Amino acid sequence: MSLWIKICGNTSVEDALLSAEAGADAVGFVFAQSPRRVTAETVASIAGRLPKSVEKIGIFVDATFEQIATTVRESGLTGVQLHIDSTPDMAKRLREEFGPALRILRVLHYADGIGEVAVHISRDTNIDALLLDSRTAEAVGGTGLTFDWKSAGKSLSRNPEVSHRLVVAGGLKPANVADAISTLRPWGVDVVSGVEVSPGRKDAGKVRDFIAIARSASARLA
């Protein structure tokens, strides 16, 4: 199965198109408090310019069901990324509202552990993938910080049901994404700051390098 790659934190049509043309499977848009925050109106104007094959994922933290559902409809999102603060039944309600066409990712931070919690989330049939990320006191994503991949890999080896639905994030960049893939063997990878010039502005060379290196690393594991 081909590696799923998401380039997140897009704020302009130019950057989203760059990611799509470079071979990203998905582009992400942040609706939470962040220097990369965008509006539904902005995303709608971007989504209309992207190929239908490219997924448009919205990132939400502490949003209500009504806020998320309205944003999905207004912006043309094809998926949502829910952070750990979301209510337990959020995925279920979104699945009932939008059906299987909406990709639902649930974020788990490495600091919270990836044992029983990860297994519990992975068994939720309303969740399509588990995104493992790092965080700080100031930010729940886009931190530019990695976590302990080797330790995480050991935990995942004891919980193989998690691995085939795992998306790795947190401090990834062209220089280290191959190591992350070879260590964790994830279903997908997600990058924000590792391919930026500044928050919300992509570096074209880094975007292309990241995707090419990630694809190559994944192919070597096939």
Automatic annotation (TrEMBL):
It comes from the Bacteria. The keyword Aminoacyl-tRNA synthetase does not apply. It catalyses: N-(5-phospho-beta-D-ribosyl)anthranilate = 1-(2-carboxyphenylamino)-1-deoxy-D-ribulose 5-phosphate. GO terms for biological process: L-tryptophan biosynthetic process. Residues 5-211 form the N-(5'phosphoribosyl) anthranilate isomerase (PRAI) domain. Pfam families: PRAI. Pathway: Amino-acid biosynthesis; L-tryptophan biosynthesis; L-tryptophan from chorismate: step 3/5. GO terms for molecular function: phosphoribosylanthranilate isomerase activity. Keywords: Amino-acid biosynthesis, Aromatic amino acid biosynthesis, Isomerase, Tryptophan biosynthesis. Its EC number is 5.3.1.24. PANTHER family: N-(5'-PHOSPHORIBOSYL)ANTHRANILATE ISOMERASE. Belongs to the TrpF family. This is N-(5'-phosphoribosyl)anthranilate isomerase.
